[in-house]
Description:
By secondary structure, this protein is mainly β. It folds into 2 domains: 26-233, YVTN repeat-like/Quinoprotein amine dehydrogenase (Methylamine Dehydrogenase, Chain H); 235-270, no CATH class. Helices cover 4% and strands 41% of the residues. It has 2 helices and 20 strands. It has a 4-stranded antiparallel sheet, with no helix packed on it. Strands 5-6-7-8 form a 4-stranded antiparallel sheet, with no helix packed on it. Strands 9-10-11-12 form a 4-stranded antiparallel sheet, with no helix packed on it. The radius of gyration is 20 Å and the shape is globular.
Amino acid sequence: xxxxxxxxxxxxxxxxxxxxxxxxxxxxxxxxxxxxxxxxxxxxxxxxxxxxxxxxxxxxxxxxxxxxxxxxxxxxxxxxxxxxxxxxxxxxxxxxxxxxxxxxxxxxxxxxxxxxxxxxxxxxxxxxxxxxxxxxxxxxxxxxxxxxxxxxxxxxxxxxxxxxxxxxxxxxxxxxxxxxxxxxxxxxxxxxxxxxxxxxxxxxxxxxxxxxxxxxxxxxxxxxxxxxxxxxxxxxxxxxxxxxxxxxxxxxxxxxxxxxxxxxxxxxxx
Length: 270
């Protein structure tokens, strides 16, 4: 028996902007009944009132341009809003900026290059940040920043930020490739690994980080801020039943899903 989920639309908010990242990431605060939405097009966090979910209304915006270029991610825990902001030059260190549910600035700290996603630990004592370190004219190292909030946001300083990096894998690129980790030639592992998304275990001790371009998942011990393991995801055999795909864009847009004698990488995004 297959369990199904039926979703019924009860309300909608429209930015009026198409294909510009104007409403890509959102986070809900149940206490204030507000939704915080990343608007990359305007370099803001849009605050929506959802007290009447049938009629969402934008009530305010948080401008992030004084901290960098644009916001990439937002997360909420216990009325505290955390926003990941990339630097104007995305290869430079970015920032995480904290606000209350009214959009009032609280604190900010520096993290790694191109903070692309962040999340709170289940108990709210930490924020983990995936610093993608995407290449441009230079290729910064990817990393995960761990921000300790156990002393309260009001007491937060740069000393509360630790970094889990990948330099311990430098020099092992050839071996990692044989194990199934995708690493481009001419780069160190630390440069090539680009953390994309983070999931935290229920006990708050372990983080699982997708490395999309590397077809792998990194495992991080949160208390020590150490990458303890890389888990390559292997290949998907598209010749097997159930693994078919539409392999051509030259058949007049026809949908033609079939098995083929090829293999593909999973490339985990989240």
